[in-house]
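User: I've been going back and forth on whether these two constructs are worth ordering. Before I decide, could you fold them both?

Assistant: Sure. I'll take them in the order you sent them. The first construct and its structure tokens:
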Amino acid sequence: MALRLAADFDLRKDVLPGLRAAAGARGGGAGILENNYESLRVLNVERNGNIIYTYKDDKGNVFFGLFDCHTRQNEHLYTFEKDLQVVSCSVNRERTLLAASLVQSTKEGRRNELQPGSKCLTLLVEIHPVNNVKVLKAVDSYIWVQFLHPHVESNPLPENHLLLISEEKYIEQFHIQVIQEDGNGVVIKNSGHLPRERVAEDFVWAQWDTSEQRLYYVELKKSRSILKCIQFYADENFNLMFEAPLDIALSDSGFNLVNFGCTDLQDQEKFSEHPTLCVFTNHTGSLCVCYSPKLDSWEQITYSVFYFHKGHSKTFTAALGSADSRVTKGITFLNLGNNEVVDMLPHGPLQSLSGSLILDWCSGRLYRADLNRSYLLEFLWDARLDWEKMAVLHCVLSCRQDTRFLEAKIIQWISENISACHSFDLIQEFIIASSYWSIYPETGNMDKLLPYSSVLTWNTEIPGITLVTEEIALPLMRVHSFKGYWEKLHSNLEYVKYSEPHSHYSNSVVRRQWHSLISEEKTGKRRSMAYVRNILDNAIKVISKLEARHLEPRLTPLFQEEDNHQRLLVGLMVSELKDHLLRHLRGVEKKRIEQMVLDYISKQLDLICQILEASWRKHNLHPWIFHFNRRASAAEFAVFHIMTRILEATHSLFLPLPPGFHTLHTVLGVRCLPLHNLLHYIDNGVLLLTETAVTRLMKDLDNTEKSEKLKFSIIVRLPPLIGQKICRLWDHPMSSNIISRNHVKRLLQDYKKQPRSSVIDKSSYSVEFLPLNYFTGILTDIESSSRALNAFEGHDNVDAKFVEEAALKHTTVLLGL
């Protein structure tokens, strides 16, 4: 299974043994519990993680206990000496007050133990020490109770706040002041009159968020469902935070509570007869509502997710396939939170709690849920369809634990399936998706600012699944001052309102600016040095961050040269991406955005380095590969192929490459490819001739006919500035010829013809060849006048005499002399 559940708490293991031992110590024996084994059940999970449970003895007395999730110890809270059924229970933060609602026992022959005319009794009990019991409600409708657990420093709190949720569709808040008596004893102040107020009414659905102390509920107004949220604070204040229309069908006759504990009153057989509705949030300001209507057919399931912080909803319809499908209890929406756990989900009702916790009411087990990484990796290897590969790849990358291990496994999979995908490029998708997931938790709406996939739109049909995306109305905020989560949600909503339709970052601007800089370099022109220095400083920051990620020595010979072209590309990307995020993330600090940009770009470079390192390690190559004077092995062919695929993947997206990548790729290309293929790769831009690579080639190769042909073919394809440098490294008539041609071109480009004497001094020339002598004389005059004006400086002793000698040698070669 892709989902794994690890038990954090088990009622039968963590509570039952202690109760048996306590019963034995009192002389009652274990049988006092064995006869009422099934009465032991969980009632509630409080904000601090403590679990409240109940059980009965053989006399029917009701016991309340608490399991401390931190000390993993059990504590007896209270005993109600009547045979009644518990509906709901909650304990305040200090464990001094217990609220409980109880109803008449279902056993036949029992007389009414409650007050005459009442069905449900709601009590408030002093339990530190056990003292007074106050009746809060004695009514014919069921009542659920929940203490507020605010995050405050003071301990104990002078006032407690208790929510009462009625089956009559209203919610009240009681304010309970307490005072200390007789040392540590706590009693209720003015217990005869407890202030209370109506919080909500006429609702058909409500959910309690115990972690954030929020109440979500749905009202029906003119047959429209309106979602509302109330935020409770440490004092007695609370605010209605927002209202949002929900395009779902809820019945006015229905009544459903989420996360208000569990009671036997809920008929589990009717679990799938009601719509399923859950609200999920996280710290980035997201607000999601998950909804599944009543199941009318077991042939397919429909569910919707309303992404209010993004302004759209997605409705999925999935075919179940076989008639014996395990989906017989409806849909359960789970919050997986951060991210590792049973091979099968429990059959009973589940409650999704904060921190990736899931409570199975029937078994009394509390699970921590995560994606099963081992299963997902196995699924990745077995996937045959492209949409399966993409879906599982993103699931694996969303597991943010031990990312280095997961990325290594994905790279291994990619290297074995490099050509097995037709709808998208595996390397592209891995780089884009992994980079996105690496900074996804930083802020909301990241999916609208950065690409999360290399595929802009998925047009291939997925069998058995349909998806409909619709725009939805944004929540209407009811307050004007925001902090914490609400500030981020408000920022997300403002972004949706005023953002540009297509605000995804792309490297199109970087592409234009980079080509402009390279063009300026070729023509000898360059914009202000301060601008270029700033760009290169950006690249230094990225590469420093990249080196900090990789502490072990590298196998691949990268980062051994400046590679200014790639550094310019990296620096430009930093500048453009920073401007892009600053433009759209107005509520985020500039420093934080700069850090996000450095993390994002260094992550992309790091992924490319990881792919290369993995390929290098797999084929057992060594850094001495950085030479031309050896034949290529099969392993080197394989690495060259991977590097070519990396280049293809990054080229269309215009992503930067690690400095030294092109040099290494060219070295392998020279060793792996026949000359005509090599030149074809160079002419089509697959292999980029770097100064480092060509310098190494000139030094490593001898002057055999084959090597000369290769060298000359390379030199004539070099940019002029690099070509001039490289020619001086090759002591050969060909290079002398090229140097001479460049020298003559440079001298004559501004030459203006002047009258010259027709008499030539033959004594100054070594050869009596009038055209050459005349031309050499012109060059000598230009050089002399240029030096006189300080406008010309010699280049490595290249002058008219050098040109004359080169011309004669070239002619001699051509004539076969």
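The second construct, handled the same way:
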Amino acid sequence: MAAAPAAAGSGAGRGRRSAATVAAWGGWGGRPRPGNILLQLRQGQLTGRGLVRAVQFTETFLTERDKQSKWSGIPQLLLKLHATSHLHSDFAECQNILKEISPLLSMEAMAFVTEERKLTQETTYPNTYIFDLFGGVDVMTLLLPLTVSLRVSDEMSKDCLSILYNTCVCTEGVTKRLAEKNDFVIFLFTLMTSKKTFLQTATLIEDILGVKKEMIRLDEVPNLSSLVSNFDQQQLANFCRILAVTISEMDTGNDDKHTLLAKNAQQKKSLSLGPSAAEINQAALLSIPGFVERLCKLATRKVSESTGTASFLQELEEWYTWLDNALVLDALMRVANEESEHNQASIVFPPPGASEENGLPHTSARTQLPQSMKIMHEIMYKLEVLYVLCVLLMGRQRNQVHRMIAEFKLIPGLNNLFDKLIWRKHSASALVLHGHNQNCDCSPDITLKIQFLRLLQSFSDHHENKYLLLNNQELNELSAISLKANIPEVEAVLNTDRSLVCDGKRGLLTRLLQVMKKEPAESSFRFWQARAVESFLRGTTSYADQMFLLKRGLLEHILYCIVDSECKSRDVLQSYFDLLGELMKFNVDAFKRFNKYINTDAKFQVFLKQINSSLVDSNMLVRCVTLSLDRFENQVDMKVAEVLSECRLLAYISQVPTQMSFLFRLINIIHVQTLTQENVSCLNTSLVILMLARRKERLPLYLRLLQRMEHSKKYPGFLLNNFHNLLRFWQQHYLHKDKDSTCLENSSCISFSYWKETVSILLNPDRQSPSALVSYIEEPYMDIDRDFTEE
């Protein structure tokens, strides 16, 4: 580093003022203008020219100005720190200066986090703001690597990290500036090799990566494999908070609100650029020996019950102010564990707002750490670990991750934790994060449940390992269902490794069904529970899987929620309609149960009202019922004939006016520019209706009826032009996507070649073809060549 300027009073500084000082004072002999220095410093930071740091001032000037502005001596301390921060410095003196600066910033950070007072940076110039304005952050980013390269004490590194973190907390823009220093961010990872600096480093990295525009690449971290392999389980769990940012796509495009046009354009761009940073990071982690195994152990380990459950309500109140950052809780747990080894498992909690040099409470008194705190500690760990596993399950190496998760018995481990931890009963004293409540969606208890359900959904979706969610007795039940129905057993059931399935009286799927049926009507969990169960049924329809769930009252529960409770949540309704469709598809017993529950016209009208209120939400059920009707009509069976004659729902769907009404509305509510992963199902459902009409040689009739409906609505050509554009997009979207085409084929039991043929017939440009859309669009209203490509 550059040497410090000549001290005030020396020959170099006497008799003249520096240009910077003259400017700051408003000219020779002028009086200091309030705010002028700070304004120039801020402008200097933005432009890189002029005043940018404390070293550009003399100590005399800073001291004199400090008397008026009350800067707490921070600029002078930075001036001294700059002078002692070079290769041959006295680092003892340097550390003493850091010890003076650190408390000044930590007090403000604590007050800022706990909201005890509002900081108005532009008028009161709090310490962190002044520290940054006079170049303190830049000094830290230079000093910290120097202390590491020269192997100065870990204590000094901790002070630097603490100062940086507190400045990030209180001063806007600092975290973003640090995020732009990619080499510095990579360097921070190396500080996690030391247990003494791990927590501070992890906290700072997590905040920086949260605002970083470009994702960091883990393969650039020196000795990543060795670094991660040497973490203890506690450190690995904390590291998962960082990994959550590095392995998730910054803009995944998987969000239902992203248009498919935008996603397709992004995918084309990604193909030319190669793997994304998130994909590279996932591969880097999976290459670390034992990484997934250790995550599975973390996710399934039990909470220690060695500590008693003494009264802790008052203690919890005092904890609230510390829980904005889960790492603080980790540090306290570490302290408690260390003292436990000496039979002194105790800590004392400071009153809200009290500050400590390192941001942690003292450990001198004999107040026992409550058991609920250990539970919350474990919950905070697990939700991060489950998130990482969930992302890996959805990545490019999905099959590899699936195999490892099964091998390391994640599912039976989670099953054993289900009642005591994952879906434990809330108590009045349940711990929550500061500023939140038990029912808040971001409370740890609720977040863990949602993350658990998302993991089950990803694990079960279109994968034969889904049968690991059952126990041996339940697998035998599936076999018995197939035997009784005189149908072959599902091959995946036969191939399931019985040593890897759930143990105990109930498997994980059965436990989920039990809590699902007890969930309050307004619960936010209903959506995720339905999605998790539906994923078990997705793919090729399995009669045994359906009957397994039907026997446990799932259909009646769904109908109760849709009809009797008259659910209002669109998300929950959509998930319940999707689940009901998968549960009933091609299953005569399910339709009999439906008719038994919906046993009055009044109930049936409520059900239809829910369906018709939003076809985007209910169209998957409409599709499943339409497909089932087509299959039943082609079967010669007394049981099927009975259901066809009695079931209100099948009778309703069988009417051509009903099908045309659905078809018209399904096409009308979507357009190429507004297609998303959520509503593209409307397009596929409309195609199913027309494919089945084609099978019966009624396709021209349906197209003619659509044309008449257009004219009756006074919009000739509008619907069919839109449908033509949608089908052109369908060809572009699905003919290059193996997974999507396979899903369409498996879920409908209609070969994908028939899907393609039907679309080609509908798009035939020959106006003489009775099955071509153009034959039903009058020439003046023709608009089928619109360019919908999104760059």
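Notes on the second construct follow. The chain has a mean pLDDT of 80. Residues 555 and 594 are 7 Å apart (CA to CA).
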